[in-house]
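STRUCTURE:
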């Protein structure tokens, strides 16, 4: 499923009409009927439906929705929000068709009347404003949005809630807080932003016959993609075929972080795993992480100091967990990136070290994979967290292309970006993951996956999806979102693999 900007959606519309020859009125008919089908799935004939219709294509969809549901015998009140002179193009055609078939609409005449209509109906269908919203919401939409949000009546928005911008970097001035949104063809960027996603409520896409974008830029990565790309194992598999991994990190005060990463990598499927850390951490973990081997690194005040003589001929490396925030950590990261030719996952304190000099990422022989949360990504970019969250796709793409790296921007919607600027979104997980150690476990899973027979892009998408899905499975049965621990996620991978038949 592709994720598009407003311009990309407009371009698809124009291409479908100008190059393929699809009539715009037919596309609007398809859109309205598809939305009506979705609305009907939760209706009974006794329900009253209020359709609020704007002047653009979104409003045109509203005329089709009203007519379709009227034809099917539902009690529908259509409210035209603007004078008829402002209804143009394909929307005007469908307005005329509604009237020609013997139906009618009500002209909006103020908040008081609209409040009564909201109270009198079971469903409000918001078809007022579409993907072109920018800046201040003006009358009459401003008052209508206030009225809809104040009403307890169930609200369904068409394509996106009125007032919510489609694109990045556009502030929400005022918007409908929908209970549900029926998205036309492809989700827009704002469906995946922390500050706009809540306006959508639950949402689902409907197909209206538009072509796929000519250039792949952004896609949703879900269960079907995991099952089709996840590598299988044959009867002749052995440990050497599933990756020889190295974890570098750990301080005497933070032994758990590298322990979680190491155990997650082993549970994730790594064939062999070595942990390079300080002696005190080896003593703490050796009895619990039996399957790993260990390399002792020089220790001063509990911190790693020297990897000069460390053999880095591995299939994958994860670095940074519990490494400490000190000058020596910067030197450690720099040496690893310079010497290692395999994929390197950089997390936690490794990202902090990277802030000192991002140029060490440039032109290294092997792939670099950064796994920041928004705070860490904002620091790398030198912007505020709100600024990053207003344009997460653009910021991560720019950084990935500039430094030739993969980025896993963690969050409720995790954005995975490759060095060519292609992006994928995974949405599994829940607030149970908002706890120390979850990121360490994810790094271990990603380390295991990048060493398997799949592209690095698929490995990162599969890893983030499975990490979140495991949290969902565990909180549905044995745990709550309050008590879930990173260790539970690691142990729960077995259940995920069995559930997905991986």
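SEQUENCE:
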């Amino acid at each position: 499923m592709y994720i598009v900007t407003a311009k990309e959606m407009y371009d698809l519309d124009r291409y479908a009409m100008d190059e393929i020859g699809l009539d715009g009125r037919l596309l609007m008919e398809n859109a309205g009927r598809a939305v009506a089908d979705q609305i009907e799935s939760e209706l009974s004939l006794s329900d009253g439906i209020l359709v609020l219709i704007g002047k653009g294509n979104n409003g045109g969809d509203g005329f089709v929705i009203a007519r379709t549901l009227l034809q099917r015998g539902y009690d529908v009140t259509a409210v035209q929000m603007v004078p008829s002179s402002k209804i143009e193009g394909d929307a005007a055609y469908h307005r005329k068709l509604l009237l020609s078939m013997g139906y009618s609409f009500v002209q909006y005449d103020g908040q008081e009347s609209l409040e009564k209509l909201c109270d009198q109906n079971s469903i409000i269908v918001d078809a007022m404003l579409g993907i072109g919203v920018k800046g201040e919401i003006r009358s009459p939409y401003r008052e209508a949005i206030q009225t809809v949000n104040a009403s307890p009546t169930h609200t369904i928005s068409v394509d996106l809630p009125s007032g919510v911008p489609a694109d990045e970097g556009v502030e929400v001035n005022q918007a409908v807080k929908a209970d549900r949104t029926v998205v036309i063809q492809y989700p827009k960027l704002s469906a995946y932003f922390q500050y706009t996603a809540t306006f959508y409520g639950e949402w689902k896409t409907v197909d209206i016959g538009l072509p796929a974008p000519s250039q792949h830029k952004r896609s949703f990565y879900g269960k079907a993609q995991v099952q089709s790309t996840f590598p299988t194992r044959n009867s002749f598999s052995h440990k050497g075929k599933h990756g020889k991994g190295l974890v570098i990190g750990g301080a005497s005060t933070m032994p758990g972080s590298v322990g979680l990463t190491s155990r997650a990598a082993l549970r994730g499927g790594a064939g062999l795993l070595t942990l390079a850390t300080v002696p005190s951490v080896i003593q703490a973990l050796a009895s619990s992480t039996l399957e790993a081997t260990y390399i002792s690194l020089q220790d001063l005040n509990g911190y790693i100091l020297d990897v000069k003589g460390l053999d880095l001929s591995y299939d994958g490396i994860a670095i940074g967990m519990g490494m400490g925030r000190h000058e020596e950590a910067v030197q450690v990261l720099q040496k690893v990136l310079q010497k290692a030719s395999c994929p390197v996952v950089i997390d936690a304190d490794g990202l902090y070290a990277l802030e000192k000099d991002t140029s060490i990422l440039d032109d290294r022989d092997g792939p670099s994979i950064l796994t920041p949360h928004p705070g860490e990504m904002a620091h790398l970019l030198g912007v505020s967290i709100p600024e990053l969250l207003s344009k997460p796709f653009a910021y991560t793409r720019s950084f990935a292309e500039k430094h030739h790296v993969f980025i896993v921007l963690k969050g409720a919607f995790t954005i995975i970006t490759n060095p060519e600027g292609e992006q994928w979104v995974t949405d599994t997980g829940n607030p149970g993951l908002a706890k120390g150690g979850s990121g360490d476990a994810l790094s271990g899973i990603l380390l295991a996956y990048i060493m398997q027979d799949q592209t690095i892009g698929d490995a990162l998408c599969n890893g983030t999806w499975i990490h979140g899905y495991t949290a969902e499975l565990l909180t549905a049965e044995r745990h709550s979102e309050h008590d879930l621990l990173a260790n539970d996620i690691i142990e729960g991978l077995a259940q995920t693999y069995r559930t997905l038949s991986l």
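REMARK: The CA atoms of residues 327 and 353 lie 8 Å apart.
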